[in-house]
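Quick log. Single chain, no ligands specified.
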Amino acid sequence: METRHFDFVVIGGGSAGYAAARTARETFGNVAIIEAADKLGGLCILRGCMPSKTLIYSAEVLHLAKEGKKFGLKIGAAEMDMPALHRRKLDVIGEFADYRRDQLKADRFHLIRDRAFFVDQKTLGLAGSGEQITADHFMIATGSAVNTPDIPGLREIPHWTSDDVLDLDFLPESVIVLGGGIVACELAQFLNRAGSRVVQIQRSAFILKETSEDAAGVVMKAFRDEGITLHTDTALESVAKEGDEYVVRFSQGGKPQEARAAHLFNALGRKPNVSGLKLENAGVKIRKSGHIEVDEMQRTDNPSIYAAGDVSGPHEIVHIAIMQGEVAAQHAAGKTPTPVDYDTRTGVVFTDPQIASAGIPLEEAKEKGIRTVEADYPFDDHGKSILMEAKYGYVKTWADRDSGKLIGAECVGKDAGELIHAMAVAISLRATPADLLKVHWYHPTLSEIWSYPLEDLAEDLDGGTLT
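-> predicted structure:
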């Protein structure tokens, strides 16, 4: 049986895996990437960020066109051309996928198209070729997979996942969306704006549990205002196919309910993709959440094996996966990298209104015993957002009362994903509200809305702590 040896081997060619391989190649001369997927590119490019945001933006343009009367415009019948949108999406992601494929196939890497599993603590087996791979260092970056919970009927009947929704080339008449996470909400709103009748069923009292209840509440109101039938605080009982219809039975407030539609979209989350890796052979431990257990250098219990990205968590975000991959590769190379600082993280939900956050979430700060001072300001009292008819939401920011430094911010509203970066920079640089009030906040812009809660914080902090 043939065996090949490498300095550094990455399992998975997505964002974390490629970042680790690229960084490792700065030190090591013999780096391999093992990728089992039929298409190269990774989840973000092929089945995540890029296709979903392409579709969501087109749906936003359509929504604004339909709302033209609010802006003093006469716009004829506007409707979604799903085949054309599908082609545009393929063109957009095709460019990114081609670039990533060229990177992975570059001469500086050994690209192996096969499925890998651990034979022992220092050896990989390849399912297709039967070859074995050894290495000084391994990186697991296999991403995540669709989660199918144990709901009676769900596993037995064919249904859509996010992969199917992102690949639609026709407009479905009606869709039941199971779940209230980020993927569920972004694509439920896309389908609704495209012209489908959407019923969304969420088990907890609020959608978007990754965000604050205040933020989720704003999006819930927007969804219902746009016509999505949103059921929250439910208990899912069964899923069935009756003739041409899907039927979901659930209880809400103790009362039996049912929803019927032509299609069913399972958006009940994703799970770390560790199936088939045989991690037990390598001495790699899994947390209760299903994620691979790692330290701050992304190293597993096996000192030769690292993990990064969705498969290790704790935050399934592309830029964090890249940072984790870089940290792991630098550590493997004998360097002393700075661990990923999750206290300065950013996050964005691409619903409309968007939800964006930076720094330490308010509840987390309080759990850590940080004495906080906070202030907020609504979009419906802000000049630029009023003229844009973008009145949903608010901005909120908070500081450490003892140090005066900004530690967190939240924006719910139009283009929140862009606006949050002003606060992300401030938090990362440990600025105070008084520091930020030195900025020329231009009027009228959406960005200047931050100046209002900052003024309140500075006053509360008795002028802040100037640096």
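Residues 82-104 form the longest helix (23 residues).
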